[in-house]
Amino acid sequence: MNSAPDPRELGAFLKARRAQLAPDEFGLPATDSPRKVTGLRREEVAQLAAISVDYYTRLEQGRVRASASVLATLARALRLDDDQQKYLYELAGKADAQPRRRRTAQRVRPAMRRLLDQLTATPAIVLGKRMDILAWNFAATALYIDFSRIPVQRRNYVSLLFTDPVIRSMHRQWDHDARDAVAALRMEAAADPDDPELVRLVAELSVHDADFRTWWAEHRVNTVSYGTKHYQHRLVGDLTLDCDTWSSPDGSGQRLMALTAEPGSPSHDALRILTSWTAEQSSGGLVEGRSQ
Predict the structure, then answer these.
(1) Is 39 in contact with 21 (CB distance < 8 Å)?
(2) How many CB atoms sit inside 10 A of residue 39's CB?
(3) Given the DSSP bridges, would you call strands 124-127 and 226-233 parallel, antiparallel or unpaired?
(4) Are 231 and 171 in contact (CB under 8 A)?
């Protein structure tokens, strides 16, 4: 009969693992205070894993037990290989809860693809799980950027909102829009907290952006499917667009996000000019990306 797992053994493994990692490998900001420990500090691991320092400290001290979602987060944050992950889950007594790595690739539904083909003058994007950008039309390329030039694994709406300088700078109300995006991502995390790609995304953004780290920790959620976006476009200036999102009825989690302007408004005219110019530069139809 196997004995119950000892939380202190898990804590010892976490402590040993963070001692093996160099801060500069994670792009962590330099600090003025000298390092008293080898490798990562506790607060840095907590930051990478998007959990509180107090909670992580108690984990290392063997005073609390880790949930499966926290284990998945720590595995990503500490860059554990397959054997180390297996060992981590065994120490926690959750070997059966270890997340499976093989996941079905997201593919755009045919109906969504047809809608994109038909929305020639309306910027539209298909969002999948984790708000990954699965497909877009040329009008969306005109409004934002050429998504095809971004590696597939980086095509994520929230990530681009925080890390791409063009997309970030065009949002005149960036704080409002970005905070709403974080809240929407939080809502998705509740449905699948052990999704390794979601864990990776949250860990990376938590390290590289203080606002994301703060807003993620607030646990604010929303399911808003419409609103108004205020943009400052590099070619046509100010744009005020209605943003509406429709969910696929098949349970795939895919959503069509479309941006439109009030007919006869300056934004409508500017958007028409922008999309017409882009159409002239292109000879094809839909450009599609698939998440891995």
Answers:
(1) yes
(2) 16
(3) unpaired
(4) yes
When pLDDT is cut at 50, 70 and 90, the band that residue 61 belongs to is very high
Q: Cα-Cα-Cα-Cα dihedral of 226, 227, 233, 235, to 10°?
A: 60
Q: What pLDDT shows up at residue 33? A: 66
User: Residue 90 has which token pair?
Assistant: 């065994």
CA–CA gap between residue 185 and residue 177 (Å, rounded): 12
Q: Is the pLDDT of residue 290 over 50?
A: no
Least Cα distance to 55 among 44, 66, 41 occurs for 66
Give phi and psi for 240, each to the nearest 5: -115, 110
At 116-145, the pLDDT tens digits run 889 888 999 999 999 999 999 989 999 999
Residue bearing tokens 């939080």: 186
Residues in the chain: 292
Residue 73's nearest CA partner among 195, 223, 233, 221 is 195
